[in-house]
């Protein structure tokens, strides 16, 4: 998988959040996106996920030597982010079965095994609306980690997780990144220890470290 970003810029109202950004993201080269609160990390991630349009510039997606249109890229990506919604009325079991209608899990993982892997067996029949914020975060991360997609996008991945949850995150992240293009928006180094490349956003400019 490759994502090529050319002359990317985004403004809200009259303010440029960032401008003139060029880079290429590749599978097996996980990248952290860092920067102060409000610097534009989530905005950049949402443009790459084709959730938000860019104001100028282009994002090009290539998978197995074929161009993927922007309106099809959702099929190729998994995203875990604070602004991503879960279906609150569904139980955990129903949420997983619903998800599997659109995106299968890696290595043919079954729904029951998935629920064990995210450590929520006791909540199998509980509605998601009654989950704690940490339980919701485990579900979001699990769906992203274990879905069979070549792109994995994470925004503030350990928010609401306790120490056990952070250990769980680090373990499953490293187990599920092979052959995937991984981008992590974060200011917590323990969330992006696997990333050798860091992109830092400051004062509307994006620096590659
Ligand atoms: N829909 C919107 N309308 C107007 N301004 C917006 C909108 N969405 C984001 N912004 C502004 O864009 C800037 C970047 O926001 P963004 O959420 O991308 O930052 P961030 O680096 O992810 O922040 P944080 O670390 O707090 O999550 C902020 O100044 C924010 O107020």
From TrEMBL:
<dbReference type="InterPro" id="IPR027417">
    <property type="entry name" value="P-loop_NTPase"/>
</dbReference>
<dbReference type="InterPro" id="IPR003593">
    <property type="entry name" value="AAA+_ATPase"/>
</dbReference>
<keyword id="KW-0547">Nucleotide-binding</keyword>
<keyword id="KW-0067">ATP-binding</keyword>
<dbReference type="InterPro" id="IPR017871">
    <property type="entry name" value="ABC_transporter-like_CS"/>
</dbReference>
<keyword id="KW-0813">Transport</keyword>
<dbReference type="InterPro" id="IPR003439">
    <property type="entry name" value="ABC_transporter-like_ATP-bd"/>
</dbReference>
<dbReference type="InterPro" id="IPR051782">
    <property type="entry name" value="ABC_Transporter_VariousFunc"/>
</dbReference>
<dbReference type="GO" id="GO:0005524">
    <property type="term" value="F:ATP binding"/>
</dbReference>
<dbReference type="Pfam" id="PF00005">
    <property type="entry name" value="ABC_tran"/>
</dbReference>
<protein>
    <submittedName>
        <fullName>ATP-binding cassette domain-containing protein</fullName>
    </submittedName>
</protein>
<dbReference type="GO" id="GO:0016887">
    <property type="term" value="F:ATP hydrolysis activity"/>
</dbReference>
<feature type="domain" description="ABC transporter">
    <location>
        <begin position="3"/>
        <end position="208"/>
    </location>
</feature>
């Amino acid at each position: 998988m490759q994502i090529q970003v050319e002359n990317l810029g985004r403004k809200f109202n009259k303010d440029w959040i960032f401008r003139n950004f060029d880079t290429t993201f590749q599978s097996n080269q996980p990248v952290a996106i860092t920067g102060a609160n409000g610097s534009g990390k989530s905005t950049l991630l949402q443009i790459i996920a084709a959730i938000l349009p860019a104001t100028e510039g282009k994002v090009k997606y290539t998978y197995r030597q074929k161009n993927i249109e922007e309106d099809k890229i959702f099929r190729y990506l998994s995203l875990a982010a604070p602004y991503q919604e879960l279906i609150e009325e569904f139980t955990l079991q129903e949420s997983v079965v619903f998800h599997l209608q659109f995106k299968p899990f890696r290595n043919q993982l079954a729904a029951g095994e998935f629920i064990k892997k995210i450590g929520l067996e006791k909540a199998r029949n509980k509605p998601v609306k009654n989950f704690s914020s940490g339980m919701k975060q485990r579900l979001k991360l699990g769906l992203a980690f274990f879905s069979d997609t070549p792109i994995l996008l994470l925004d503030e991945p350990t928010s609401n997780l306790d120490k056990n949850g952070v250990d769980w995150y680090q373990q499953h992240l490293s187990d599920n990144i092979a052959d995937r293009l991984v981008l992590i928006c974060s200011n917590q180094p323990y969330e992006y220890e696997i990333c050798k490349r860091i992109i830092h956003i400051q004062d509307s400019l994006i620096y590659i470290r």
